[in-house]
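From the shared-data thread, chain only:
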Amino acid sequence: MNKNKTWKITIKGMVQGIGYRPFVAEKAVQFGLRGRVINAGGLVVVTATATEEALASFTSFLQDNYPDGCVIIDISHVEVKYVDFQFFSIEESVYELQKGWIPQIPPDIPVCDRCAAEMRDSSNRRYRYPFISCASCGPRYSIMDKLPYDRCNTAMDDFLMCESCKKEYTQKGGIRRHAQTISCKDCGPQLHFNNAGEKGEGRIGESGFDEGTGLLKRGGIVAVKDIGGYHLACLPWNADAVSELRRMKDREKKPFAVMFPNVDEIRKYCQVSDMEEKILKSIARPIVLLKKKEQASAMDQGVCGNSPYIGAMIPCNPLQIMLMEECGPLIMTSANSSGMPIIISDEEMNDWLKTKPVSCGSGILWNERDIRIPLDDSVIKIVAGRQQVFRRARGMVPLPIKLNANATEQIFAAGGDLKACFCFAGDGVAYLSQYLGDIEEEGAERLYRYNYRRIKSLFGFKPEKFAADAHPLYRSAKIAEQIAEGTEVIRLQHHRCHAASVIAEHGLEGSIIGVAFDGTGYGDDGTIWGSEIFLCGDDKDYKRIAHLKPLKLIGGNEGARNCQTMLCAYMDQAGIHGDDETAKTVAAALKNDINTVTSTSMGRLFDAVSALLGVCRYNDYEGEAPIELENEAMKSEEPYPLNFEIEDDGESIIGNPLPLIYNIVEARSKGAVVCDLAMGFHMAVADFVAETCRRLRKRDDSFDQVVLSGGTFQNRILLERVVELLEADGFSVYFNESVPPGDGGICLGQVYLCV
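Structure, as tokens:
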């Protein structure tokens, strides 16, 4: 009687694209198993024959042992009809997505230390090959067409493996066994350099690399093809190159990110904590906002402007390592005009460079491997000892976020129009798209729609519920209505979704005070909200309980950008009437309700105070005035005492900013220092939040948790001060750590409120 049995073992989780099948095959042999392992949709399935004891030991081993990048969610097995396998093999994949299971897909993975070492080894056949990768590293999500993750389902299908690569692909124990991105100088993508506007293959390989780096060293600008799109690179010390780069991108002031060879090089210019170092080296290889050291003044002033931070990152791919070793630190900014999606097409990149001639010279380092989806660099900052994501993109997408409630139906949440990001959810997890830009731009809207189709197909989503912002004119909501095809779209208030996004990602329950501060969001009453405080409970009926005093402000996009007109509106209602043309025009508009909105916006108040202090009178990019106000406040040694007038009728709590505006005007007339007034304003906003929370807990002591969200809480001074005050008062305080606090995170809140 045969004592052997055959089991079918199903492994769910992040098990494709990280070398899991070769790992399983080698371990199976060690355990004495015979059989096969395959990718099946988004799963890995092992069918193996051995003694029951060996099968059980192997299955138990898989629960706790796996390669880097793997996430095991569930392993199950069933006994099946006996199969007399002769050996253990890795076999062809099964292409159907598995019913009832949403697959997990790996993000793009930075080059591993082994591949980097091979690339530097002059005796290795991949010496200085800028597209080296293995089973554990290289592009994944950005080159995928469909599951399972096999070469034929990726952009690598365009490259036929040479005999040497084929041998490595099947070599037991090798780092490239079944590595779908395996390639070399003989059979894979090759590096090319062309001067701007030049057609054809250009200079290839080492010659192309030398041409590109030579141009960079001479002060030129080079478009460099990355895993998720093109970067524009130049030396951060060269004032002419930096100035020309700003002109190319139509980006007058917003700081540029800088790539450094390694963390030790970053430490020469920036303060780097242990936590910041860990994030710099993480799989996302994000831009991390780090405090400058004095040595950073060696860089041109145009790199970061007045910002006390440098957006620093280290290489994520082999070509970037080669560039850093040859040129040292480089500005690496997305290749696009400001506000447009990052460019991924070689032809489009070359055509774009032709339309943006620069005196310092420009060129393009490209390769033949297609990018299937544009992915900007992710951006992260450490605040109050925790991670805060500003932009969630390459290296973070499409990793899922676990929800604290199991969605029995699949949900699509459309997010918002600014910093657009949508979300699918089901089986208790949420999958967010990458940052897509502002979909009022035609290119960003096209990218939004394309991403919807791609993610829906890749993961096999079939949404049954649809959610969108309550704003009647949002394009994202109109897209949701088109997608829903007659199914009702649930319209949700913007700021409740901000608060819910924090509750969702932290899995919070019970009574919670939700604080959502930003520039604009459509309110229940048809006015513009932006300083909202809610009482949140498990019933998800978030009651608006506090906010700033509703005031008349100038509306429209120009109103949001022109801080001076915003200031005039506040001052007019504070009883301070100017006699210049702008003040008179604004006063007349307010009196006659011409292009005005009623608003409680905290973001617009920051704009007004920034203008009042002479810090920034116009937002050339989104959030410039509040950012510059924060930068000014950081110079202060003693905040000027300011506060909001609080009106509390036992039901609602209203913060009146008009006396504060009056006090700032008075203080300035007496010679108060601008940076101290800027810091005093930040402290006043924090005090308003803390005092409101104290009063709400006094009414009901079950409200001892506070969540903070909205774009205003991207302000480090404000966020850290609010956390400090609330925690000192015994509150448990949470803010967004896995999704952006701004509009890039509201889709998670939309999903949560629909579950």
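The mean pLDDT is 94.
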